[in-house]
Amino acid sequence: MLLPLLLAAAGLGALGWFVLQPGPTAKDHLLEMGPLDLGQASRVLDAEQEALLDRITAALQPEYQSQVAALAGLQSQAADLRMEGILWRVLPARGALVPVEMELTVLGQYYDLPILVDGLYRQAWPVEVRRIVAETPKLGTATVQATILCRFHRPPRVDAEWLETEGADLFPDQPDLGGQALTDAARVYVLEAFDDASPGLEAASQANHDLVMMHLPRTLHQLPQSPVGWVEMVVVDGGVVISDEPSD
């Protein structure tokens, strides 16, 4: 009951939490409520937050990115490919999910790429391969430079500074406790929403794995016939688009 109570007190809807923008306040709601023990509320919400963090395994938090990068390096070696580099990008939130993209570049024989791509799915976090590009530095050879774009997800970041200010305004007699309780409530809210979405991430990762591994061999077989020694496979709306030369 503590979470809905605090959300009602703040007058904030679900959309406000996800887009992390200040929303309207409704202090009149406080007049309709009984006394609220903010210290107890914060303690309970903090415990809920810890339980959710322990339960959620699908979220690629920033502190885990180095583990994913290290695993990608090991998987590249196992596929007899040389890892050239990794780039990370965080995309705008989509409801309860924040997409996190990893762009992996490797060098080696094109027929070893399916081993690496298949290995990228064998980790703790659900992943989808969104795009694969392979090009030959020298036409007529099996050596390629390949770029693999993967997508992970994490919960939205909570704007703690704004929430602490809002909580202090809502509970002027206990500004510190009010700000902390409201921040804890927001964190629990986004974690619960992400937890609800996690089964869908697992299912999407499995479907993406099946789709990519079905079409990747055909994509790579087109490389020798490409007029510029270049092929691309893009996953779009549950299907695959294959090209053998850049569009621009």
Compact description:
The chain is of the alpha+beta class and 248 residues long. It is 47% helix and 21% strand.
What does it look like?
With 248 residues, the chain is of the alpha+beta class. 47% of the residues lie in helices and 21% in strands. The protein contains 8 helices and 6 strands. Strands 1-2-4-3-5-6 form a 6-stranded antiparallel β-sheet. Helix 4 (38-55) packs parallel to helix 8 (175-221), helix 5 runs antiparallel to helix 6 (113-120) and helix 7 (160-170) packs antiparallel against helix 8 (175-221). The termini are far apart. The relative contact order is 0.16. The model is unreliable at 8-35 (pLDDT under 50).
Distance between the amino and carboxyl termini:
56 Å
Low-confidence stretches are: 8-35
**In order across it, which strands form the biggest sheet?**
1-2-4-3-5-6
- The residue-averaged pLDDT reads 82
Strand and helix order: HHHHHEEHEEHHEE
Based on CA inertia axes, which overall geometry fits? elongated
Major pleated sheet: 6 strands, antiparallel
The fraction of residues assigned to DSSP E strands is: 15-25%
Oligomer: single chain
Helix content: 40-55%
> How many H/I helices?
8
SSE-based structural type:
alpha+beta
Please state the CA-atom Rg, rounded to the nearest Å.
Answer: 23 Å
How many runs of DSSP E, i.e. beta strands? Answer: 6
